[in-house]
Amino acid sequence: MWRGSLSFGLVNVPVAVFSAVKDMDVRFNQLDSESGARLRVQRVCKEEEVEIPYEELAHGYPRENGEGYVMLTDEELQAAQPEKTRTIDIDEFVPLADIDPIYFDHPYFLVPVGEGEGPLRAYTLLVKAMEECGGRVALGRFVLRTKEYLVALRVREGLLQLSTMLFADEVRDVKDLPLPDKRKKDHKPDKDELKSAVALIEELSTDWDPKSHEDRHRERLLAIVKKKQKGQTIKAPAEPEMPAAVPDLMAALQESLAAAKKGEKATA
After folding, report:
1. Between vectors from CA 24 to CA 21 and to CA 30, what angle results, nearest 5°?
2. Residue 155 CA to its chain's centroid (Å)
3. What is the DSSP letter of 141?
4. Residue 146: per-residue pLDDT
5. Structural fold of domain 2-24+81-170
6. DSSP secondary-structure letter at 168?
């Protein structure tokens, strides 16, 4: 996806960027239900009801007074693009524990490239140095396509793993959410309820095994496709009801804890 250098002080490490994840989503083409032909998207002017060719497109940003748009061309938008560079500049190192996971976006791998021992030696040096300073990640910036990203780098399985990150103003402040009034005292749990909830968490706690979690939605979609291919009838499931709040919180906790101890799933 990208080739350049990782800049660490005066040391430049030639690297290539590869996505660390695979797109496993089940995708469908939009078709005409009668002919089965694929559809195409057209850009149509709402006022004149005519298709607009690509070269006549403009980009509009709503005016502050709410009246109309500020119109910009592709050429004008290019003025906002960052300077195209071929470096990932490391600015600082911070403890991984200090970064809230909500800031992490998309993961990539950095792979050493280049001829001779120099690039691999520089790459290995940075990997080993970061392993020696365990628990820290490198923060930096780099330009991918037309956008500049804040990134975090850490070591994973002997390779440098890069994650693009969200900026602080992209993360919603919880104060903007319609939260209940915390000043009311009737929402506070008593000691026995809290003790039972903690016990339930402890009972359900285990070691993280990513392979134990599968994409059940994708499996159901593929199963439906196979059934349809065989000519079977597909019935839509009934609309689920919204679960009501439990009338007796303590009883629900105790029942859930007993089921967890037996390795069962508690039922409402």
Report:
1. 135
2. 20
3. E
4. 80
5. Ku70; Chain: A; Domain 2 (2.40.290)
6. G
